[in-house]
Amino acid sequence: MIKAYKAEYINGEFVFFSVHLFNNMWRFGDSSWKRGDEFDTEAKKAFEALMTFRLFEPTSDEFRDFQEDLELRRKRDFNWTSPPGDDFNFFTSAFHDVIILISLAVNETLGESGNLSDGYTLTRKMWNRTFEGISGLVTVNANGDRDADYSLWDMTVNGESTVVANFYGATGELEFVGDIAWPGGATDPPPDTPFCGFENENPACQIQDSVLTITIIVSCCLLLGGSAVILAVYRKLKRDAAIQSRAWQIKWEELQMQSDHARGCRTSSFSLGSVSLKTEEGKQVFTQTAFYQGRTVAVKRISQDEVKMNREILIELKNMRDLEHPNLARFIGLCVDVPNVAIVNEYCPKGSLMDILQNDSIKLDWLFKYSLISDVIKGVQYLHRSELSVHGRLNSSNCLVDSRFVLKLIDFGLPSLREGASQTLGDHALLTKSLYGAPELLRDPKRGPTKEGDIYSVGMLMGEVATRQGPYEAESKNMELSEIVDKIKCPPSGSLSQPFRPQVAGENVDSSISELIKACWAEDPKDRPNVNSLNASIVKINRKKNTGKGILDNLLNRMEQYANNLEELVEERTAAFLEEKKRAETLLYELLPRVVADQLKQGKAVDPESYDSVTIFFSDIKGFTELSAQSTPMEVVMLLNDLYTCFDGIIEHFDVYKVETIGDAYMVVSGVPVRNGNAHAREICNMALALLKAVGSFRIRHKRDQKLHMRVGIHTGPCVAGVVGLKMPRYCLFGDTVNTASRMESNGEALKIHISSDTKVILEDFEGFNIELRGAVELKGKGVQTTYWLLGSSDKCVNAVTESEFT
């Protein structure tokens, strides 16, 4: 109802009848329609067209007495009272009438001495019977169905429901007890048949619908036409903007190149690398390579004094820029800065197809050859479908091979600009390129490139790949190139004469490939296959030759071929890798103890480890803060580098491990990570004497007359050591021994070695150490400790090591 009302139907146009058997579906309390406790204005308005059929509700005094008696018995027998608002369901009176009906049937059966167990007979006693029940007159027809009474309820504009008619089922009488409030202000019910008819058969509606349909169709056509015009104008404006944007233009200053020298420094101006592309007259012709926007590109110079940018060239440059295919070398841009006019293309490091075929060290099986031929055909197929339509200059020097051995075509498009590049070639080069041209184009150079001419050139490339020989290579041994070109131009004199073509048949040439090549060389361009049929033929041949091999097998074979061809390069790179690995391992051994580094290399976890006794060395430079204030940061760095380089060379002669350096502090330990009994005290003390002697001879670069005053502190005790961190991991020591050694250093004196009593006790096991009692010293956080000065050692290694470092 609400949906029809919201769809703007007029209430006078429809009436909705609802069969309502139970009054708890919608609440009609106090003869008004409610939903909860709130009136819904919109719903009431919509439900003006609602009429509801419900069972006739008795209104007799007997029924009201029955209802009151039922309430009393419910309270007396079950101690239950209806909650407020729960109306009495008059339908329950039907159960009372059922009992009366059964009783009448039972009494009549007993009066006839009948059997009450005969359900069939007992049931028939209830049929075709009328009696006065509590709800009124009850009639059961001959079929055993009750002829019930119904009431028609109508909802008014105020949302009230009232009885407007009663229907008595026993007599079939319809009694109107009120007036029906027809919705929408109508005085009569809606017509049985709509104005336009159920099937829209009214002519007046048909004319109206036809006009409306025609109007809609014309409007849609105008809308579509306008949209098409707007879209066409937008696309044209967008294309013109793309043409005028000159996204292809490259400034000469933007082209840079990494130097060919070993240092690989990039020059500030444009420099050229060189890669061989083809051989002409025994000389190598090189392509120029440049560095542009982070990648290497190929640069082809054009000898032109000026470049006229008309709309035709701008459109072709835009089309060139839009071309993108795996078998086309991408056009990067054009430099029009006279005299440095150049075409910039994608760089392919493996050189040209000619280089690959002439390199005997590269082994090409037929799988590899099929792949190269397929790449050529796919590239030509894409060009024939593109805006450029043709290539026009196909030859083996214009087929480049990238680092993945994928063949890519180049030198397509821009015919007016490429004429300038062709003029710089010698006669021999032009004649060599003419060997790939179709006969009809050689006879009439002004004819321009054609798709049939490209197919002829593809046939020449297929023959070159199949035989690994240039076109007419066998014939060129006895003939000049000019004579060969003249014979190609000359058409056959008779129907039986054959056109002049190179020989491709041989033991190593597949017959199906040979037939396909000859079809591409047909004298009549119409007899040559198009690029689509050519691609289908090569795919079929390739599938036939590789029966039983999947894509993965072919890929593996191709990669195996590639690996064999690059064996020498792999060996060189392997040697370089091993050298770099050796350097990395050396650096790792400098950062971490060798035992720990080996565990990390093997992928093992390095767990922290506890040590019962180690000896730790701390040193710093007294007055380093004042010295730093009088020096520049560069001078401070150079000072520390010189000093610690000297120290690092000395400690290599002792069984110690350098933990770290922080500013002027130098920390060394012995007995970690490899235990050495009590020798750690001896090793640290001998090392400390050697370092102290080296400091006495050390000279500061920027203050030659000033000497360094180093303080040294040594302590022996337990500690825990382990690797900390993942990035730049450090082998660190933890424990009170580290703190005590630091306090020994900070409470020491310049050019003296301050040792603890624990260290002195262990040194007594070794002869040759000169130790002097210092006395009681207050150590921060440790209280009063008895400490000693280490004055010297009889170990000859101390003097030998120091002298060797300054020799």
From TrEMBL:
One of its GO terms (biological process) is intracellular signal transduction. Residues 552-579 form a coiled coil. One of its GO terms (cellular component) is plasma membrane. The chain crosses the membrane at residues 211-234. It is found in: Cell membrane. Its EC number is 4.6.1.2. Residues 615-745 form the Guanylate cyclase domain. PROSITE patterns: GUANYLATE_CYCLASE_1, GUANYLATE_CYCLASE_2, PROTEIN_KINASE_DOM. It is an enzyme of class 4 (lyase). Residues 261-538 form the Protein kinase domain. It catalyses: GTP = 3',5'-cyclic GMP + diphosphate. One of its GO terms (molecular function) is natriuretic peptide receptor activity. It is a single-pass type I membrane protein. Keywords: Cell membrane, cGMP biosynthesis, Coiled coil, Glycoprotein, GTP-binding, Lyase, Membrane, Nucleotide-binding, Receptor, Signal, Transmembrane, Transmembrane helix. Its main location: membrane. Gene3D superfamilies: 3.40.50.2300, 6.10.250.780, Nucleotide cyclase, Transferase(Phosphotransferase) domain 1. Belongs to the adenylyl cyclase class-4/guanylyl cyclase family. This is Guanylate cyclase. It comes from Patiria miniata (Bat star).
